[in-house]
Design brief:
Blueprint (H helix, E strand, L loop, with lengths): L26 H8 L7 E4 L2 E3 H7 L4 H10 L9 E3 H10 L3 E4 L2 H12 L9 E3 L3 E6 L5 H15 L5 E4 L2 E6 L2 E6 L4 H9 L7 E7 L6 H13 L3 E6 L8 H10 L12 E4 L8 H14 L3 E3 L5 E10 L3 E10 L7 E4 L2 E9 L14 E7 L8 E5 L2 H20 L7 H9 L6 E7 L2 H12 L8 E8 L4 H10 L2 E5 L5 H10 L3 E4 L2 H13 L5 E18 L4 E13 L3 E6 L2 E13 L2 E3 L1 E3 L3 E7 L9 E10 L4
Parallel strand pairs: 1-4, 6-9, 6-10, 10-11, 11-12, 20-21, 20-22, 22-23
Antiparallel strand pairs: 2-3, 5-13, 7-8, 8-9, 14-15, 14-19, 15-18, 16-17, 16-19, 17-18, 24-25, 24-31, 25-29, 25-30, 26-27, 26-31, 27-28, 27-30
Helix pairs in contact: 2-3, 7-8, 7-14, 12-16, 14-15
Length: about 625
Amino acid sequence: MPPRSRGRYRPPRRRPPRRAAPQQVDTEAAEQATAVRERPSKVTLSDSTTVPELSELINMTPSEVIGELFRRGIVTNINAVLDFETAAILLADLQIEAELATTGEVEQARKVVEEDIPEPAGETGTRPPVITVMGHVDHGKTTLLDSIRKSSVAKGEIGGITQSIGAYQVQVEDSLLTFVDTPGHEAFTAMRARGADITDIVVLVVAADDGVMPQTREAIGHARAAGVPLVVAVNKMDLESANVPRLLAQLANEDVLVETHGGNVVHVEISAEQGDGLDDLLEMIMLTSQLDEPTARVTGPGRATVMETRLDRSMGPLANVLITAGEIRPGNSFVIGTESGKVRALLDPGGQRVKRATPSQPVVVMGLSGIPKPGDVLAVVDNDRTARQISESRRLRAQREDTSVAVRLGLEDLALQLSRGQIQQLDLIVKGDTDGSVEAVVRSVESLGHDMVKANVVYSGVGNITESDVNLAVASKGVVIGFGVKPTGAASALADTHGIDIRTYRIIYELIEDVSLTLDGMLKPEIREIIDGRLEIRGLFRSERNLKIVGGMVTEGAIVRGANIRVMRAGELVGTGAIESVRRYTDVVNEVAAGYECGLALSVRPAIQLGDLVESFHEEEFRPGR
C-alpha cells in the first residue's frame, strides 16, 4: 500500500447544490416596503416641540429624528423638547419649510389639549356642602374635628360618619356635611393653586383666650382669596381667661365683622374639649350653606379631586378623592392627571367596598397606574384606550412645560394682562418687618388706583416671606411684596417653580411707585379715533387697481403724507387705505393745511367719484379713570 502524501489535506470536491427555480417576486409589495414615506413640504410648529410630535408631523419615526439630529451634532433623546430654531434647521436640511405658529394657533392647540375630556351632560342637583376647618395651630382645630366625629357617633345616626384620609361626612338631621381635614393652610392653598376649588365654607377656629394670632390672619387671607363664606368658631369658652369682646374687636380689625357687630359673618361660641356648642355650630354651617345651596351634576361620568395619595404594598397606588360631579363606579376607566387606570374598587375608611360614589362623597380609589398629585382631577372616560391616549398626551405636555423656562408673573406682566382685560384686580400679599410698616404699606397701596381698578391686599403679616405666602400668591395669581424682609430659601425655590414674582423694598416710595405704575397699566385701554383732516375730491386723474391719483380741497385740519384714510360717500364708508404722496402743483410736500388744494396718490382699491370725502385719521389709546 503506497504511503500517504504528506502534503496539505484537501477535502474532496463536492458538487454545488442545484439552484432552485427563481421565485416570482411581488414587485408592488417590494416597492411599498422600500418606498420612503411621503413627507410634507411645509409644517407649522410652536416655539417648543417634542421629538415624538415632530416625528409625527414629518412622517418619520422618533429614532430617525434623533439620528438626524445626532448627525448634525445635536445629542438628544425621545423625551427632549426642541425649540423652533433647532427644529427649523433640521427641517430645512430635509427640504421641509418650517413656519412658526401664531399666538392664536398655539392658544387654540392648548385649548384643545385642555379640553381633551369635555364636560358631559347630566342632571344638576344639590349636593352636601364641603367645609374646611382652619385656624391657629393651638386653637383647637383638631379637637373640634375629633369632637364632631365623636358626637355624631354617640348620637347613633344612620351613616353618622364616613371618615377617610383627608375628608369625612357628618349627618346633621336629614342632611350631610363633608369636612375636609387639610394639614395646614399651605396644603389648602396648594390645592387651590392647582385649581382644586372644592371648599364651600371655611370654619375659622379662634381661641377665646389667645385671640387673633398670625396663623389666624393667614387663614382669614386664605378664606378671602378663596371667596367662600366664613363661619367663626370661638373656641375654649370653658376657660376663665376667655375674652370674647376683645376677640371680636380683633376680628373687626381684620375686616371680619360678625353679625353682632353689624357684619355678615356668623360666629358661634363653643368648647371643643367639652363638646359644648357643637350642635349650634353645625346648625349655623347648614344655614350658611342653604343661603347659596351648592349644586353639581349628579348623573353621568364622574369627576373627582385628589385629596391625598399613597402607595400600599398590597393594593398598589391609592388616591383619596372627593367626588365633585357625576358618579364613579367600579369598572370605570379614568384619567387622573398624567396617570390613567380602571376602578378596581371604591373603599370607605373601614376597607368596605362601595358600589358608587356621588358628589361631595370622599372615597379611596384602587386601580391607578401611578401616583397622582393632590389637586389632580379624576375624570371618567369611555374606555381604557381613551384613558391611555389622554394621559400620554398630558405627559408629553408636562415634559414640554417642565423643560421650558417658567414665565415670571411679575408686576410688569400683571400690568400687561390687566390692560388686556385678562385680570380684574391686582392681588398683593404684603409682608413687613414690623406691624407699623405693614400697616403703612397696606394703607398706601390700598389708596392707589382708580375707580375702576384698585389693589387688593389678600393677606398682610409680619415676618419673612414663607412658602405659605407664595402658595397664596399662586392661588390668587398675585404678587408677594416684602418691606424690610427677605424670602426664605424654600419660598424662593417655590416661587421660581411657579413663576411667582417676589418684590422686596427698603424704601416705601419705591414700593408705592411700582404698584402705582402697575395700576396705571391695569385699565383696559380704549382705542379712540382722531380725525386729522378732511379733503373733498374735485378731480380724478388716474385710476389703477390699488392706486388712485386725485385732486381736491382740504376743508378741515391737514392732510399728511403716509396717514391712514377712509373714503366716505354720502355719509357711508366706501373704502380705506393710506396717502402715498402729497403734491402742491409740481412740488412734493409732506402736509397741506385747510383752505389749500393739493393732489394725492391714494392706495385704495374701490373706485373714487367726484364729491367723495377723504378723511385722514389716527388712533390713540385712552385709559379710563385717568
